[in-house]
């Protein structure tokens, strides 16, 4: 059986002499050799046809078709009529395929005969060769609801069955821009089934002369037309899925149109123009619950594309863009009738700019101030400049960036860091001190994980490079329980078994109605004078969990205390231990978690 599906690639080219050779070379570099490339020269006045003809003389898989200038749609359609294979891809003359593109994407099509198309991830490529902004369409199956709202991927990321592309009429020459969106919308309206490859397999080149960046007003108007078409019937399609006959629910069209204006506004802002002019076309569109985060991502990407630059240039643009951005956000909030949208969106935007900026910390963008902290070092003072609305704390573990948290006071910093990154920080500690104590026994059906003589888990067969990560994800919580309760031979279930009988003598403590037990102290059995007692689990003096337990014959055994309080604490127990035992101390220090907590409290758990 042939392990590859042959693919026909159609490339429209108009005055593409600067890029067409690199595009063809990316096709020649494919690890899957069963392809043909049809380049349709659309009346170029430069050396495009000469360059393509030279490649064609050297490789019979490449063919050149020359026609008078009729536009990209008719060029693609002319190429579609010439293709020889069942599967087709539309590759623009300046975009690039990564070497494994065809092999990976056809493997998915081969594995499922019900699929009509398969798409992959992509990244953007600036004119000076910088790759940035990896992007993916996460959805599979029927994508019409998505394509009615936006174009989910560039043409070259997707292969589609030739008969389906022809059945929907190919590309519509009456659509001035957004032709690929219009095409995929019609394809999905048939009920076509899509698969996906969750990898970046090509680069989409950002060009100053593209219609989206050179004429964003036309781009915006044409996008509104495609949106409108997606929310009503489309008479161009003869064989469509009945459920899509009348398009997407028109009740949602205002939200879709408002999101589209955000993208187009970013392009205009990137060109130094006022995007508020676009809102005049949306006078009847309102959406009080509009998503500020979605708005900001459209603006953020649109500005970078309009400038032809990567995201890390945003902080340098801020002095120029701060006022027009605020003016647009205020106008957009009024149009959407969404209270407080402008303020929330500006804060999100400031933090996105900081996330991608290479500028040395601390520094401020608008009302957001950023500082950097190292997990293993004493947390610095929180000293934002006057007028700061948000303090963004960016967290590092050695040279690894973990992410950021927003805080308002110095007292919040340690808790916020441990709440967000407890498992990652604990994993680093475990990799140094706990995972080396595990034994892995590789068998024919899986990998057994042991600690001393205790079997902790059986993992499915996996690659050696991810084995330890999988082991930590599977048994990490058990190792954590063993460490904090000083029970290295217990399986996970013992820590939650209220009926467990632990051998040996234990201290006893008489209590009335309530007791606080510190994690790092030895725990006694409770002698209770009443019917029940309220028990609190504390870590370094902080109450983490509380529960009320009945006293049977006036006694509550320590195993019942441990099981109930562990259950009540949940993941907050991990957060607290990381906060008090691991933050601001070297993770290379082999001192156990329990001993660290005792040291934190001056020799006891109190």
Would you give an account of this structure?
The protein has 606 residues and is α/β, with parallel strands linked by helices. It folds into 4 domains: 7-209 and 220-243, Spore Coat Polysaccharide Biosynthesis Protein SpsA, Chain A; 260-409, no CATH class; 423-494, no CATH class; 500-600, no CATH class. Helix content is 38%, strand content 22%. Strands 1, 2, 3, 4, 5, 6, 7, 8, 9 and 10 form a 10-stranded mixed beta sheet that branches. Strands 11-12-13-14 form a 4-stranded mixed beta sheet. Strands 15-16-17 form a 3-stranded antiparallel beta sheet, with helices on one face. A hairpin with a 2-residue loop joins β11 and β12 (368-374). The longest helix has 24 residues, at 410-433. It is elongated.
Quick take:
The chain has 606 residues and is of the alpha/beta class. It contains 18 helices and 23 strands. 38% of the residues lie in helices and 22% in strands.
Please name the defining characteristics of this protein:
single chain, 606 residues, alpha/beta, Spore Coat Polysaccharide Biosynthesis Protein SpsA, Chain A, 4 domains, 10-stranded mixed beta sheet, 4-stranded mixed beta sheet, 23 strands, elongated
Number of strands: 23
Give me the CATH superfamily of the largest domain. Spore Coat Polysaccharide Biosynthesis Protein SpsA, Chain A
Q: Based on Cα principal axes, name the global outline.
A: elongated
- The CATH class label of the largest domain is Alpha Beta
The main β sheet shows up as: 10 strands, mixed
Indicate the CATH architecture of the largest domain.
Answer: Alpha-Beta Complex
């Amino acid at each position: 059986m042939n392990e590859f599906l042959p693919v026909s690639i159609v490339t429209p080219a108009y005055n593409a002499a600067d890029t067409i050779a690199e595009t063809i070379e990316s096709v020649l570099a494919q690890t899957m050799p069963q392809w043909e490339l049809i380049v349709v020269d659309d009346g170029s006045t430069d050396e495009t046809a000469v360059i393509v003809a030279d490649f064609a003389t050297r490789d019979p898989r490449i063919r050149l078709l020359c026609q008078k200038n009729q536009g990209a749609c008719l060029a693609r359609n002319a190429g579609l009529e010439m293709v020889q294979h069942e599967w087709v891809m539309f590759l623009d003359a300046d975009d690039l395929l990564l070497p494994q593109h065809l092999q990976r994407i056809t493997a998915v099509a081969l594995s499922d005969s019900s699929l009509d198309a398969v798409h992959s991830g992509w990244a953007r490529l600036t004119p000076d060769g910088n790759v940035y902004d990896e992007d993916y369409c996460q959805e599979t199956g029927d994508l019409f609801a998505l394509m009615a709202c936006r174009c989910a991927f560039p043409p070259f990321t997707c292969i589609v069955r030739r008969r389906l592309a022809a059945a929907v009429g190919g590309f519509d020459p009456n659509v001035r821009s957004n032709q690929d969106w219009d095409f995929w919308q019609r394809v999905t309206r048939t009920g076509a089934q899509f698969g996906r490859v969750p990898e970046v397999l090509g680069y989409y080149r950002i060009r100053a002369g593209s219609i989206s960046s050179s004429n964003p007003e036309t781009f915006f108007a044409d996008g509104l037309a495609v949106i409108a078409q997606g929310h009503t019937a489309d008479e161009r399609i003869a064989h469509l899925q009945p459920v899509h006959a009348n398009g997407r629910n028109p009740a949602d069209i205002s939200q879709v149109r408002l999101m589209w204006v955000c993208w187009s506004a970013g392009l205009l802002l990137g060109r130094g123009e006022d995007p508020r002019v676009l809102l005049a076309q949306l006078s009847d569109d309102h959406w009080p619950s509009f998503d500020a985060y979605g708005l900001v991502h459209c603006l953020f990407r649109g500005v970078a594309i309009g400038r032809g630059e990567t995201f890390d240039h945003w902080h340098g643009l801020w002095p120029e863009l701060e006022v027009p951005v605020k003016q647009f956000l205020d106008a957009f909030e009024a149009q959407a009738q969404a209270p407080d949208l402008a303020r929330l969106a500006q804060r999100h935007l400031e933090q996105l700019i900081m996330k991608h900026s290479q500028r040395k910390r601390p520094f401020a963008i608008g009302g957001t101030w950023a500082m950097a902290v190292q997990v293993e070092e004493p947390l610095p003072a929180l000293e934002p400049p006057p007028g700061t609305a948000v303090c963004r704390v960016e967290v590092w573990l050695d040279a690894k960036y973990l992410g950021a948290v927003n805080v308002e006071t110095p007292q919040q910093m340690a808790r916020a860091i441990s709440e967000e990154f407890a498992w990652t920080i604990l994993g680093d500690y475990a990799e140094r001190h706990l995972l080396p104590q595990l034994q892995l026994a590789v068998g024919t059906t899986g990998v057994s994980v042991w600690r001393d003589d205790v079997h902790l888990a059986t993992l499915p067969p996996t690659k050696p490079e991810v084995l330890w990560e999988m082991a930590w994800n599977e048994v990490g919580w058990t190792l954590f329980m063993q460490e904090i309760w000083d029970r290295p031979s217990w399986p996970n279930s013992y820590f939650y078994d209220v009926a467990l009988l632990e051998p040996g003598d234990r201290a006893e403590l008489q209590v009335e109605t309530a007791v606080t037990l510190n994690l790092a102290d030895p725990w006694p059995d409770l002698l209770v004078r009443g019917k029940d007692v309220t028990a609190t689990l504390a870590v370094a003096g902080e109450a983490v969990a509380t529960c009320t337990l009945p006293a049977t014959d006036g006694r509550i055994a320590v195993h019942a205390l441990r099981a109930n309080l562990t259950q009540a604490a949940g993941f907050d127990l991990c957060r607290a231990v990381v906060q008090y035992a691991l933050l601001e101390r070297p993770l290379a220090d082999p001192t156990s978690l329990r001993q660290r907590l005792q040291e934190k409290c001056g020799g006891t758990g109190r």
